[in-house]
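Can't paste images in this forum, so I'm doing it all in text. The chain is below; anyone willing to post the predicted structure tokens underneath?
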Amino acid sequence: MALSVTTDIGSHARQPKPADLRRTGINPDFWYPVARSRNLKRGKTLAVKFAGDPIVLVRPKDGSCFALEDRCAHRQVPLHAGVVCPKGLRCGYHGWTYDTSGRCVDIPYLSAGKQCPNGVRGYPCREAYGLVFIFPGDPAKSETTALPAIPTHGNPKYKIRYLDRQVACHYSFMHENLMDMNHQFLHRRLMGAIKTIALAKRSGENWVEADYSFGRTNGKQNLGEWFIIRKRADKKSRERRDLMTIRTEYPYQSLKFWTEGSETPALDLWNVYIPVDKDQRINHTFGMIMVERPPIPGLIHLLWPFIVWFTEGIFREDRWIVELEQKAHDEQGADWNQEIFPAILDLRALLVRGGVPLS
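Text version of the structure:
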């Protein structure tokens, strides 16, 4: 893979810190995953939340899943405790029935000829990549807003591991943690001493990306790390270094890693951080790690437990540190960060520009 450097990291002028980043809400006018498809069973419901709004996912025994506001218009009890119908959902309290759009279509004790009252909010809902997506913003924009593109998903050359976990921090800390590879010191117990080499950064109206390479100054690779970043280049291509590109294309984030001399990424990571609570101080991370299979059939299955162990260790340390960042912010009552890294300055500006103010 050829490395195109358009902006030198070191030439970036210092920028002012974006205002109120941690009080910026995520823009709802995008498709967001809120559950794994496998967790929404036929004829069942699943309660989820997006930025404090309760949502019920429903999968009829026949047909596509749909999403509604998770509270009955009658007594406000959660609809996820109701009964799935062939074409809708019936509240478990008085039997009010809602269709897939949220319109109230039946009340068992309503007199004949009387019109049902207003229903509940319906959310545009789609399934892709083994995830259930909703569109929590303006429904009119859902038809013209594309689902995120994840080309490696479904490629038989890769084995996929799903990420599905809650982290007690604002989603912006997650973007910063992944984008800023200067934090490798945090992972010294798992990876030894790693020198991060910032190569370049690029940005546009709705995206920021940074390129890195790495050198080991002490310690050895563990088996999980070795398998992911194993050297596959021939001797003629030794002058080409490993390359990692991390990109936030609002609101999604990706990481691709090429070993020296390779034309295809050895690792392809896709993430999105869904705010759970109204104050957006908790996020639910949904993502996929796609690891390229080696030429030897079955080897990836043999080594998969080591890959899981290694990646889990990295995620555990990352979660610990970003939750400490959130705690420090809350105790201080403001963002006291003194950021100097150009890629993160650009990222912060993007997250403010793309987001919406929290009330």
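Residues 1-13, 222-227, 231-240 have pLDDT under 50 and may be disordered. The two ends are 45 Å apart (CA to CA).
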